[in-house]
Amino acid sequence: MAGKLDPRQVVTFEELLRAMMFEQEATRRVLVRKGMLTSEEVLEETQAVRREMEGKRGR
After folding, report:
1. 3-class secondary structure, 26
2. pTM for this one?
3. Please, are residues 39 and 32 in contact by the beta-carbon 8 Å criterion?
4. Which end of the chain has the lower number of beta carbons within 10 A, N or C?
């Protein structure tokens, strides 16, 4: 049986999404700054992943 949730530990979907976005952007910036990726590579891969995920959703 599940216990009660602590209101201090509950976040909204928007808060979770924003936190994930900030972390992803920080990671991208570090990789670009270190020369491991270019911004263009990130954009191309993002578009490829979007196409792949949208294709799976349409099944």
Report:
1. helix
2. 0.68
3. yes
4. N
Angle at 54 between CA 53 and CA 59, to 5 degrees: 100
Neighbouring residues of 11: CB distance < 8 A, sequence distance ≥ 6 = 19
Q: State the Cα–Cα distance between residues 18 and 11, nearest whole angstrom.
A: 11
Helix, strand, coil distribution of the chain in percent, nearest 5: 75, 0, 25
Give per-residue pLDDT as tens, 20-48. Answer: 999 999 999 999 999 999 999 999 999 99
Question: How far is it, in rounded angstroms, from Cα 11 to Cα 17?
Answer: 10
With contact defined as beta carbons under 8 Å apart, do 38 and 32 qualify?
A: yes
